[in-house]
């Protein structure tokens, strides 16, 4: 029941860079990506990450003031975001089995995501939440409570269609500075933007800004906890500790740096609770009251929590697990992919015109794909007439739980669309 995989994404470095600022900020190389799974007629999308790389800052040349066709601003931008990428040991074993099935050694994490790949890769901007740090290529690796996971997850996320990931979480410090450094270096090598952790004070000082079809979008990431571990006093820049003032200040700096849309990813809330806590709702109201924040995306609870519209903007309190192995609760196997459509309403001003939730389920017992653990799209499964009655029953129950959680704070009356089949929108 597997879907065909699209051809690997084409990544081509372009000859344009950021001009040096007074502080010596440089930019990563510009990358191109063909949008739409298997659709060679899809428009090319262009992204430029503006954040200083590690090491010496080379001299760079300012880009031409005449935009190429790919740099022309689009009147609408689609953003998809997903929940926690939390690699428990059993998922490494699945990746080993998938690599072996393909005649390779090592780990192949791409099949884990294959059933949602078309959703991710078709967005203008796709953001994941990489909750754990990665280890060296050959290990050693460790699981809960201090995760150090196979680095092969990072190129797999890029291949699936993700453009960047938030990285501030309660597991950011699980392997200390070396874990953060290793993770961000691997993300740079894969062409994945990142925010929330840093390798230097200079890197931490500059908001991550990506350019998507001519539109500059800032990605912020903060966490409320490090599971009892402490940031070194002389390296407080390693990871963003959640404070409302700090997040709002970075949003202001991102706006001043030219960001037209600012997205804040926040690791917060009460684990396994499908209700947004008073602390979450208070912070959400404060963040969305700022003219410098356009969307808040929540992580950490490992279960789905509500969407809510506040002052014309949206918060997703928790998208649940994207991929994880937490079989103790049905709700930890449910997830949602948030799809937001922004429309330009004035010069450098954007408004969310559509908020959509696409329910997912982590199939931990191989019901869908012959014994293999897979992340599945609930709408796709329920649109497949060939699935077993048992799987249809399981997915309908999952859908009902997710719908109830997503709409618990009035999102349905505010226009939230919950995709329930391949044709529903």
How would you sum up the global shape?
Answer: globular
Looking at CATH, which topology would you report? Purple Acid Phosphatase, chain A, domain 2
Overall pLDDT level: 86
Biggest sheet statistics? 9 strands, mixed
Number of helices: 10
Helicity, as a percent range:
10-25%
| CATH class label | Alpha Beta
| Separation, N- and C-terminal Cα atoms | 24 Å
Architecture, CATH level 2?
4-Layer Sandwich
Radius of gyration: 20 Å
Number of strands: 19
The parts where pLDDT drops under 50 for at least 5 residues are 1-48, 55-71
N-to-C order of helices and strands: EEEHHHEEEHEHEHEEHEHEEEEEEEHHE
Into how many domains do the coordinates divide? Answer: 1
Task: Please indicate the percent range of residues in DSSP E strands (runs of 2 or more).
Answer: 15-25%
Relevant terms:
alpha/beta, 19 strands, Purple Acid Phosphatase, chain A, domain 2, 23% helix, 425 residues, nine-stranded mixed β-sheet
Structure, explained:
The protein has helices at residues 89-101, 110-113, 117-121, 153-160, 176-190, 201-205, 244-256, 278-289, 378-382, 389-406, and strands spanning 31-34, 44-47, 76-85, 125-130, 133-134, 148-149, 164-166, 193-195, 208-212, 215-223, 261-267, 295-299, 307-310, 313-316, 321-323, 334-346, 349-363, 374-377, 417-418. The protein is an alpha/beta fold and 425 residues long. The protein has a single domain (76-418), classed as Metallo-dependent phosphatases (Purple Acid Phosphatase, chain A, domain 2, 4-Layer Sandwich), CATH 3.60.21. Strands 3, 4, 7, 8, 15, 16, 17, 18 and 19 form a nine-stranded mixed sheet that branches. Helix 5 links the parallel strand 7 and strand 8 (193-195). The radius of gyration is 20 Å and the shape is globular. It starts with 30 loop residues before the first strand and ends in a 7-residue tail after the last strand.
């Amino acid at each position: 029941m597997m879907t065909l995989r699209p051809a690997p994404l084409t990544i081509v470095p372009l000859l344009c860079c950021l001009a040096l600022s007074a502080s010596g900020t440089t930019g990563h190389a510009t990358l191109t990506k063909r949008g739409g799974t298997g659709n060679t007629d899809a428009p090319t999308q262009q992204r430029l990450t503006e954040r200083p790389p590690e090491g010496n800052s080379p001299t760079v040349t300012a880009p031409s003031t005449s935009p190429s066709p790919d740099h022309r601003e689009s009147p609408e931008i689609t953003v998809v975001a997903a929940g926690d990428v939390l690699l428990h040991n059993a998922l490494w074993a699945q990746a080993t089995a998938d690599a072996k099935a393909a005649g390779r050694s090592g780990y192949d994490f791409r099949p884990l995501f294959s059933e949602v790949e078309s959703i991710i890769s078709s967005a203008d901007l796709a953001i994941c939440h990489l909750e754990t740090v990665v280890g060296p290529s050959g290990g050693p690796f460790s699981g809960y409570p201090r995760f150090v996971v196979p680095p092969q997850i990072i190129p797999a996320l890029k291949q699936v269609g993700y453009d960047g990931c938030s990285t501030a979480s309660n597991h950011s410090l699980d392997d200390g500075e070396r874990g953060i450094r290793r993770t961000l270096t691997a993300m740079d090598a894969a062409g994945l933007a990142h925010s929330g952790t840093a390798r230097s004070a200079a890197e931490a000082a500059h908001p991550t800004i990506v350019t998507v079809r001519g539109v500059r979008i800032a990605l912020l990431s903060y966490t409320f906890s490090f599971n009892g571990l402490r940031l070194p006093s002389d390296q407080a820049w390693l990871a963003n500790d959640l404070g409302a003032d700090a997040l709002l200040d970075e949003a202001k700096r991102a706006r001043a740096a030219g960001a037209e849309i600012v997205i804040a990813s926040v690791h917060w809330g009460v684990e396994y609770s499908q209700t947004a806590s008073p602390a979450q709702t208070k912070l959400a109201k404060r963040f969305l009251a700022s003219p410098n924040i356009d969307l808040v995306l929540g992580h950490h609870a490992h279960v789905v929590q509500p969407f809510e519209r506040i002052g014309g903007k949206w918060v997703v309190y928790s998208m649940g697990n994207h991929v994880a192995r937490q079989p103790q609760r049905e709700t930890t196997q449910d997830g949602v992919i948030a799809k937001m459509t922004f429309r330009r309403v004035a010069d450098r001003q954007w408004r969310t015109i559509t908020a959509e939730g696409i329910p997912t389920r982590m199939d931990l017992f191989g019901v869908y794909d012959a014994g293999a653990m897979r992340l599945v799209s609930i709408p796709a499964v329920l649109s497949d007439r060939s699935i077993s009655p048992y799987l249809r029953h399981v997915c309908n129950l999952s859908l009902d739980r997710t719908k109830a959680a997503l709409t618990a704070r009035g999102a349905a009356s505010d226009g939230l669309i919950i995709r329930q089949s391949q044709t529903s929108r």
